[in-house]
Structure formats: C-alpha cells, structure tokens
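Q: For a teaching handout, I want to show students what a protein-ligand complex looks like in token form. Below are the inputs, and the small molecule is flavin mononucleotide. Please produce the holo structure.
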Amino acid sequence: MELLNKLQWRYATKRFDKNRKLNSEQVNNLLQAANLAPSSFGLQPFAIVMVDDEKIKEKLSPAGFNQPQITEASHLFIFAVRTDLSDKDVDEFVERIVKTRDIVKEDIADYEKTMKSSINKRTPEQRFNWAARQAYISLGFLLSAAAMQDIDACPMEGFSNERFDEILGLKEKGFSSVAMAAAGYRSPDDAYQQNRKVRKSLDEFVIQP
Ligand SMILES: Cc1cc2nc3c(=O)[nH]c(=O)nc-3n(C[C@H](O)[C@H](O)[C@H](O)COP(=O)(O)O)c2cc1C
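A: Here is the structure, written as tokens, with flavin mononucleotide included.
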C-alpha cells in the first residue's frame, strides 16, 4: 500500500535544508488534510498557527530549546487548543452545519444539547485535555499528508507552551499551543535518516482479547 511505503520513508527529521521551501500548493494540501481530520462531534476545538516568517522562527527558537528544526524547517504548523471552550463554540459549529447542509437549527437541537452538556460536564482542565486529543489526530493527518507528498516533517512537543503562546499572541485569542509539526526537506547531513525504524512487532502491538 502506497501510504505504508510513505510512512516507512518518513522519519522525525532533525536537520532540515534551510534553502528548500514548501510551495503554497503543498502548504495548502497539508492544511486541508489537517482540517479534514475527524474530531469529537466534529467540533474542531483547535486551530493551526502557520509560521514561515524567519523572524518569528528566530523568536520561537529559544522557547523550543533551540531545536534546529524550528529555524531550519520551511514551515512550522503549531497546533493550538481552545482554552475556554464553551457553548459559544457549539453555537458557531451549529451555525456552520446549518449553512453547509442547508437545514434549520431546530433539526439538530438534540445534537446541540448533547454537545453542550458533554462540554459543560467537564472541568476546564478536562475540557482542555479533551480538545488537545482532537488536535493530535489532526497532527497525525498532517504528518501523513506530508509523507504522501514526499515532504519531511518532525512532530514536536519539546517547547515551552507558555512562551510560544506569548510570542504568538495566543492567550488573548483563547488558544494555547500543545504540539507542532516542522515541515520542509531533510538536510543530506541529517544522520537520523540512516536509522532503521524502531517499532513493536504487530504481535507485541496488538492485544488479543
Ligand atoms: C507528540 C510528539 C512529540 C515529539 N516531540 C519531539 C521533539 O520535541 N523533538 C524531536 O526531535 N522529536 C520529537 N518527536 C519525534 C519522536 O521522537 C519520533 O517520532 C519517534 O522517535 C519515532 O521516530 P520516527 O518518527 O522517526 O519514526 C515527537 C513525536 C511526537 C509524536
């Protein structure tokens, strides 16, 4: 299967070729794939901050422990989760469904109620963690879409969320960063590309009931 070959090819790239940039079609494909990821209820309680500005990358670098991907990758896709998820988010989602499917709000009144009660029964911390789980599915979709286009990428959590939020002005927008993908093209000097992939065998990975 084509996807499996690409997933064997990809690896968490440590050193990118700073001179090679993604074009707008590639970037658009990555964003579309991330946006097409499923989420609980379809609510998408997260957003992506796309950074290709060298000055912003330089600012983020120390907050990411100076990991070279931050300044060498062509683009950073930073996944930011809603911090104050509320009925308002559900209302906006309901509005989107109504418009897209050409229905009336009353048709999905029960669904709206279920979503609101599911959100409101959680503590703010549980709500944030629940929202973050949705963002990670989207990160996975973006990584797979990168591999399908022969684009190198590195999923990354090794950065200060607080400092990223500050630099990107996320707090005031009601978001907080949780993870990112650095994307671009591997440097020929990145030794990690030579490493064999280490994974469990399927016998270890799959639990038989
Ligand atoms: C959520 C998450 C966070 C990660 N954070 C970092 C990171 O901060 N820096 C880094 O170099 N690699 C990071 N990685 C990459 C992993 O180390 C890598 O995916 C793993 O070792 C498996 O290797 P492979 O992706 O090359 O197959 C992260 C991976 C994931 C999924």
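A: Two things your students might notice: The radius of gyration is 19 Å. The pocket of flavin mononucleotide is lined by residues 11-12, 14, 67, 154-158, 179, 197 (CB under 6 Å).
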